[in-house]
Amino acid sequence: MRHIVLALYLYLCRTLGADTDEAQEIPLHAQMLTGAPLVEYLQKNQDLFEVRTTPTPGFKYKLMDKAFANANQNLNPVVNDDNDTGADLPENYDPRIVWKNCSSFHTIRDQANCGSCWAVSTAAAISDRICIATKGKKQVYASDTDILTCCGARCGLGCRGGWPIEAWKFFEYDGVVSGGPYLGKGCCSPYPLHPCGRHGNDTFYGNCVGMAPTPPCKRKCQPGFRGMYRVDKRYGEPGRTYTLPRSEVKIRRDIKERGSVVAVFAVYEDFSHYQSGIYKHTAGRFTGGYHAVKMIGWGKDNGTDYWLIANSWHDDWGENGFFRMIRGINNCGIEEQVDAGIVDVESL
């Protein structure tokens, strides 16, 4: 029954565009640009980010449906100090430097041609939070596959998209096993989909053609792994999954104190041409899709505040797999839906 309701919701959502402040401020003709005219406009009308002349291969197969843009959760935020000005927070915070021994902060995952960003980014954030919660003593590659395939309709529609807040809840009530990249060894449940497209000298498995179907749930570890599925689980603290308020100060404080969070934003065609620098939506049509990413830190570059974000489109995308997005103006809704959870250290 839930799949029927979701299907109807998806249909209704496709008839609507992204309602963002940026879309209202950008000239109408610029909002309609695509292809070469879009690239030319970006090169002439902004200098915050470098532009690639061709869009990211398989771009549209990596996005979630608009239905998953807003979880409509009424969870009480962990951070409740309305008078927090963030005066004590540093101007720049990069956990890859602060927590340099936590390998998860340096790891870029590859979701392939599947809109699994909601599961991949949550699992990646869980890995970061485990390392911080244990002060670097425990390092776990949390399985995105366990979330993607076994959370079911409660989380969404698998490769067509899902709600990160429900992925965090899955971590809380069901737990997440160890994972790894495609064909990864020494873990319970590695990612089931091979990377698509060409990535330097990496193995070429094929181009990104169509969206992959959601793999089936397997509540058992891969052959060769000695651990048992249920025993390999790590959990979030009961009742400690939360959505942060729309406050860049509170988001920054939570990142610094507890680790990475998961943010969702509306995707426009100019993002598919991002190469490096600080992304700010400038032109191009709304793709009809949304993307969930792991927000790890922040900074300031030549007077421009930005979020530091890990993408899940391979480490040859953007700035070695990462990108920066303008901070404090809710660009593409990036500060509206930010979710996280607390690690149950005793379960590790």
From TrEMBL:
GO terms of molecular function: cysteine-type peptidase activity
Gene3D superfamilies (alphabetical): Cysteine proteinases
Domain of life, source organism: Eukaryota
Transmembrane segments annotated in the record for this chain: none
Residues annotated as domain Peptidase C1A papain C-terminal: 89-342
Family annotation (PROSITE patterns): THIOL_PROTEASE_ASN (PS00640), THIOL_PROTEASE_CYS (PS00139), THIOL_PROTEASE_HIS (PS00639)
Protein's GO biological process: proteolysis
Entry keyword Acetylation: no
Keyword entries, A-Z: Disulfide bond, Glycoprotein, Hydrolase, Protease, Signal, Thiol protease, Zymogen
UniProt keyword Cytoplasm, yes or no: no
Family matches, as SUPFAM superfamilies: Cysteine proteinases
Signal peptide: 1-17
Family of the protein in this entry: Belongs to the peptidase C1 family.
Function as written in the Swiss-Prot or TrEMBL entry: Expression of the protease correlates with blood-feeding and suggests a role for the protease in blood digestion.
Name the record gives this protein: Cysteine proteinase
Organism annotation: Haemonchus contortus
